[in-house]
């Protein structure tokens, strides 16, 4: 029973780290990645569909993303979705595809993106702490129902705290790597 709680807690903490890495992919670094447009949704016949599912999105070089829609009629909808997403560039529509030209980032932009990353890190840490609280609550419930002893409960809660500390350290490592990537010119 306690081992199941440990496994669930660890798995949920890992999910928090995976979500953080997905969020980090949407941040711009010195080199443009297609992750910047991952959260953009396009009105595809009345359904909000991810941009990556209505066309081919590729980074043609360090400062350019090219979007070729599966259907030419989607060009205006894609263009509108990119403008509304406010990712810092205006789409260039040439009738066949859309290109996004990203200018080199200034040091102020880099610092602003680092601040966004810090916010994402805090969100991930809060999620991990919430998972810890859920795990501890389940352990306390087992103790209250006399399924485990008080000593077993304390040991289990210490184990959950160790898991929490390990995952928070992973979050901090991921942030350091991302910060270095963002600030690298």
Which characteristics define this entry?
elongated, four-stranded antiparallel sheet, 185 residues, alpha+beta, 2 domains, Topoisomerase I, Chain A, domain 4, Gyrase A, domain 2
Task: Write a brief structural summary.
Helix content is 58%, strand content 15%. It has helices at 2-25, 75-85, 107-144, 150-183, and strands spanning 41-44, 47-50, 55-61, 64-69, 92-93, 98-101. Strand 1 and strand 2 form a beta hairpin.
Low-confidence stretches: none
> What integer is the average pLDDT?
90
The gyration radius over C-alpha positions equals 22 Å
Question: Which class best fits the helix and strand makeup?
Answer: alpha+beta
Assess the beta-strand content as a share of residues: 5-15%
Indicate the percent of residues in helices. 55-70%
Please provide the ordered H/E string of secondary-structure elements: HEEEEHEEHH
Major beta sheet summary: 4 strands, antiparallel
Count of discrete alpha- or pi-helical segments spanning 4 or more residues: 4
Shape: elongated
What is the CATH level 1 assignment of the largest domain?
Mainly Alpha
Number of domains: 2
First-last Cα distance: 51 Å
What is the name of the CATH architecture of the largest domain? Answer: Orthogonal Bundle
Strand line-up in the sheet with most strands: 3-4-6-5
CATH superfamily of the largest domain: Ribosome-recycling factor
Overall number of strands: 6
CATH topology of the largest domain: Topoisomerase I, Chain A, domain 4
